[in-house]
Amino acid sequence: MRKAVERVVRVVFSPTGGTNSVANLLSVQIGEYDRQIDLTDAKLDFSREQVTPSEVAVIAAPSYGGRIPRLAAQRLAQVRGNGARAVVVSVYGNRDYEDSLVELQDVAQAAGFRVAAGVAAVAEHSIVHQYASGRPDERDVQRLSEIGNHVAQFLREEPCFQELTLPGNRPYKKDFRMSLVPQATSACTGCGICADHCPAQAVNHENPRSTDKSKCISCMRCVSICPHRARRPNRFVVWLAGLMIKSACSKRKEPELFL
Ligand SMILES: Cc1cc2nc3c(=O)[nH]c(=O)nc-3n(C[C@H](O)[C@H](O)[C@H](O)COP(=O)(O)O)c2cc1C
Known about the structure:
By secondary structure, the chain is α/β, with parallel strands linked by helices. It folds into two domains: 172 residues, Flavodoxin domain (Rossmann fold); 51 residues, Alpha-Beta Plaits (2-Layer Sandwich). Helices cover 29% and strands 18% of the residues. The strands form two sheets. A six-stranded mixed β-sheet has the order 2-1-3-4-5-8, sandwiched between helices. Strands 6-7 form a two-stranded antiparallel sheet. It is globular and about 55 Å long. The two termini are 23 Å apart. The site of flavin mononucleotide has 27 residues, from helix 1 and strand 4. Flavin mononucleotide binds next to helix 1 and strand 4.
């Protein structure tokens, strides 16, 4: 008997929206949207979040230096998977995703999910915007919808869950830490929107011009969300980062599916 349409829960860490776009493009093909667990939301108590065994989770995080952001891993680890099937998705800025996909698989499995598939896809680089600019684009939309359909079909066939082999190494690459703390410019009105939405609670609520360097994960959420375009990272560091990854980013990479 053919199974009813899957109910999809998106479990997503997406400071600047690229990961969210990819997760949405995949999810709509996999089943009916049910709800989202926003791993970027610092106010949520993730230990109260769970996915039921009959739901399918699309678990997506960006790749930072070939790893998943530590905050995303810590929050995902608290969500209860209850044996629900999951698709893990690593979104990167056209350089490389290295060990992010296997790390996401490991964290999801430890949280009780059964990982059935892995996807790696590209979105605009959230620091060096000239790389993967405008992605996911039309070509990605097409390919991600094919991938989503493929995954839906695979899940319908109810595969027996053998360990999925994904690209990447264990042990993973060294922990990634980037010191690129965006600063407020004179256009800052002190409205506090950046403080409200900082995934790491690094921006001070009383004085949004002040950021706690030790908490900032350089995710660029504050830069992308500011209505006054009043926050920016150091231009020289961004230029240098662009130069360092130029050759790795020069060739367009396409979305990949691993079953
Ligand atoms: C701190 C940081 C490190 C990053 N490291 C990489 C990387 O190693 N490789 C890569 O291809 N993209 C890298 N990126 C780009 C992001 O993975 C990519 O832009 C992703 O779409 C961002 O997700 P978001 O839009 O959901 O925030 C990095 C971005 C940030 C902010």
